[in-house]
């Protein structure tokens, strides 16, 4: 039988995700972080790890190129991924926020310009409140934008708040909380249910029992 394909991004969510898979007996001992290889077969040959960019996990899973995956809620929302989101893994916790120079009054700007890696989430959020904004798509170092006059404010992820602090920016408005999710392709969930369901159930059991898989573990 074909291996179940699991999409994962290198980076912040990789280690804890692989740790959870290991706890349910799915191990990829040929994987190591510095490798340039993008696919790894599990030791039992039943699963295949495919390494994609964080923002692309939802796309691979939605299209069935991967049967399941681990992705931040931020990336799933931004990609508008049509997938089953079956487990909140409880790590990778952070907040979306509007941030800017201290004392910035959002209502002073018409339209408000917003630098962000997440134009869809930003537009959806402000549109739902009937507030007119203009987004400027950035790919990183977003905190720079208001400092150099590229945008009035930013919308970005805040975890510890250190990046904002070190750049003399403040949270002006919090938007929504996010965390890592286990997602499954809708067709795979039906056609490969006998293989996929036990994985979901075991991951759920680990999260429920531990209730303490955190970034600090
Ligand atoms: N402080 C944080 N900053 C960014 N993402 C975080 C943070 N804490 C948790 N996350 C979560 O980790 C996920 C992966 O983040 P990571 O930094 O590895 O990739 P990325 O920066 O989105 O991608 P890339 O580095 O390829 O541009 C995010 O989508 C988010 O859900
Ligand atoms: O509140 P903090 O704990 O400081 O974390 C938030 C920072 O982390 C992320 O950036 P990342 O490290 O992914 O860099 P980039 O997006 O600028 O590439 C995010 O875009 C913030 O800049």
From TrEMBL:
Alphabetized GO MF terms: ATP phosphoribosyltransferase activity
InterPro entries (alphabetical): ATP_PRibTrfase_cat (IPR013820), ATP_PRibTrfase_CS (IPR018198), ATP_PRibTrfase_HisG (IPR001348), ATP_PRibTrfase_HisG_short (IPR024893)
Highest taxon of source: Bacteria
Subcellular location: Cytoplasm
Similarity annotation: Belongs to the ATP phosphoribosyltransferase family. Short subfamily.
Domain notes: Lacks the C-terminal regulatory region which is replaced by HisZ.
Name the UniProt record assigns to this protein: ATP phosphoribosyltransferase
Protein's organism: Alkalibacillus flavidus
Encoding gene, per UniProt annotation: hisG
